[in-house]
Amino acid sequence: xxxxxxxxxxxxxxxxxxxxxxxxxxxxxxxxxxxxxxxxxxxxxxxxxxxxxxxxxxxxxxxxxxxxxxxxxxxxxxxxxxxxxxxxxxxxxxxxxxxxxxxxxxxxx
Length: 109
Fold this sequence. Notes:
- The protein is an all-alpha fold and 109 residues long.
- The chain has one domain (29-107).
- The chain contains five helices and no strands.
- The protein has helices at residues 2-27, 30-43, 46-53, 63-83, 86-107.
- The longest helix is centred in the N-terminal third of the chain and has 26 residues, at 2-27.
- The radius of gyration is 22 Å and the shape is elongated.
């Protein structure tokens, strides 16, 4: 009897958690997920660039990685221009400026 009681309580608990999680996920908008994705794209090369700047490593980020990330961000930027999405325009523009500044500080040191 006690096993059945424990099993029913655990099942009820996980069903409640499942419902709460579904409600939470539906509140997150696709815009928020896209914005976080753009920030993560920008952040892909920053650890390597900072490590190179502070002398932790002598290896620059691989050029193919930088080109792919910049191409993806360029596509996101063009999409934001077409959609007239000011938040993404500002985010991507500032990201380009920060990454270009970091690269300039490293390569023209």
